[in-house]
Amino acid sequence: MVNLDTNRYSVPWQYIGKEVEIKKQFGMIRVFYQSELIASHTIKIGKHINSVKYEHYAGLVQQKHTGIKPLSETPLVEVRSLSVYELLSSVGGDING
User: Fold this and answer.
1) CA-CA distance, 45 to 96, in Å (whole number)?
2) Residues with Cβ < 8 Å from 23, sequence gap 6 or more?
3) Which residues pair with 89 in a beta bridge?
4) What pTM value is reported for the model?
5) Which residue has the higher pLDDT, 67 or 24?
6) Are the C-beta atoms of 57 and 74 separated by less than 8 Å?
Protein backbone atom coordinates (compact mmCIF):
# COMPACT_ATOMS: atom_id res chain seq x y z
CA MET A 1 0.00 0.00 0.00
CA VAL A 2 1.11 3.53 -0.70
CA ASN A 3 -0.10 6.49 1.34
CA LEU A 4 -1.30 9.77 -0.16
CA ASP A 5 -3.17 12.51 1.70
CA THR A 6 -4.08 10.13 4.59
CA ASN A 7 -5.53 7.52 2.20
CA ARG A 8 -3.96 4.21 1.21
CA TYR A 9 -3.85 2.65 -2.25
CA SER A 10 -2.85 -0.91 -3.09
CA VAL A 11 0.01 -1.88 -5.38
CA PRO A 12 0.91 -5.35 -6.65
CA TRP A 13 2.39 -7.31 -3.77
CA GLN A 14 5.67 -7.81 -5.61
CA TYR A 15 6.41 -4.10 -5.08
CA ILE A 16 5.86 -4.02 -1.32
CA GLY A 17 8.87 -2.38 0.29
CA LYS A 18 10.15 -0.93 -3.00
CA GLU A 19 10.52 2.78 -3.64
CA VAL A 20 7.84 3.98 -6.04
CA GLU A 21 6.84 7.29 -7.58
CA ILE A 22 3.28 8.57 -7.15
CA LYS A 23 1.66 10.98 -9.59
CA LYS A 24 -1.75 12.63 -9.25
CA GLN A 25 -3.31 13.25 -12.68
CA PHE A 26 -6.91 13.96 -13.72
CA GLY A 27 -8.49 12.64 -10.53
CA MET A 28 -6.31 9.51 -10.58
CA ILE A 29 -3.32 8.34 -8.60
CA ARG A 30 -0.75 6.55 -10.72
CA VAL A 31 2.05 4.53 -9.13
CA PHE A 32 5.30 3.91 -11.02
CA TYR A 33 8.23 1.63 -10.31
CA GLN A 34 11.35 2.43 -12.35
CA SER A 35 9.18 4.43 -14.81
CA GLU A 36 6.75 1.51 -15.29
CA LEU A 37 3.10 2.07 -14.37
CA ILE A 38 2.25 -0.60 -11.78
CA ALA A 39 -1.06 0.66 -10.35
CA SER A 40 -3.73 3.29 -10.79
CA HIS A 41 -6.70 4.24 -8.62
CA THR A 42 -9.35 6.92 -8.55
CA ILE A 43 -8.35 9.46 -5.91
CA LYS A 44 -10.48 8.93 -2.81
CA ILE A 45 -12.25 11.92 -1.28
CA GLY A 46 -12.13 11.85 2.50
CA LYS A 47 -9.59 10.70 5.04
CA HIS A 48 -8.23 7.31 6.07
CA ILE A 49 -9.80 5.40 3.17
CA ASN A 50 -8.26 2.23 1.72
CA SER A 51 -8.50 1.65 -2.03
CA VAL A 52 -7.74 -2.02 -2.68
CA LYS A 53 -7.59 -3.87 -5.97
CA TYR A 54 -7.62 -7.53 -5.07
CA GLU A 55 -5.78 -8.46 -8.26
CA HIS A 56 -2.75 -6.78 -6.66
CA TYR A 57 -2.67 -9.72 -4.24
CA ALA A 58 -3.20 -12.49 -6.81
CA GLY A 59 -0.63 -15.23 -6.38
CA LEU A 60 0.26 -14.16 -2.87
CA VAL A 61 -1.51 -17.13 -1.31
CA GLN A 62 0.84 -19.49 -3.12
CA GLN A 63 3.88 -17.56 -1.85
CA LYS A 64 4.84 -19.05 1.50
CA HIS A 65 7.24 -17.35 3.89
CA THR A 66 7.17 -14.01 2.09
CA GLY A 67 7.21 -12.10 5.34
CA ILE A 68 4.37 -9.92 4.06
CA LYS A 69 1.68 -9.23 6.63
CA PRO A 70 -1.96 -9.58 5.63
CA LEU A 71 -3.72 -6.27 4.99
CA SER A 72 -5.75 -6.70 8.18
CA GLU A 73 -2.51 -6.68 10.22
CA THR A 74 -1.05 -3.59 8.55
CA PRO A 75 -1.34 -0.50 10.77
CA LEU A 76 -3.34 2.42 9.36
CA VAL A 77 -0.83 4.93 10.70
CA GLU A 78 2.90 5.00 11.07
CA VAL A 79 3.91 3.96 14.57
CA ARG A 80 6.56 6.14 16.18
CA SER A 81 8.06 6.23 19.63
CA LEU A 82 6.74 9.06 21.80
CA SER A 83 10.34 10.15 22.29
CA VAL A 84 10.36 11.31 18.64
CA TYR A 85 7.50 13.73 19.35
CA GLU A 86 9.08 14.89 22.60
CA LEU A 87 12.37 15.63 20.85
CA LEU A 88 10.67 17.51 18.02
CA SER A 89 8.48 19.55 20.33
CA SER A 90 11.51 20.60 22.35
CA VAL A 91 13.29 21.94 19.24
CA GLY A 92 10.20 23.13 17.35
CA GLY A 93 10.70 20.60 14.56
CA ASP A 94 8.29 19.26 12.00
CA ILE A 95 7.70 15.48 12.19
CA ASN A 96 7.18 15.32 8.40
CA GLY A 97 10.47 16.94 7.48
Assistant:
1) 22
2) 29, 30, 32
3) none
4) 0.61
5) 24
6) no
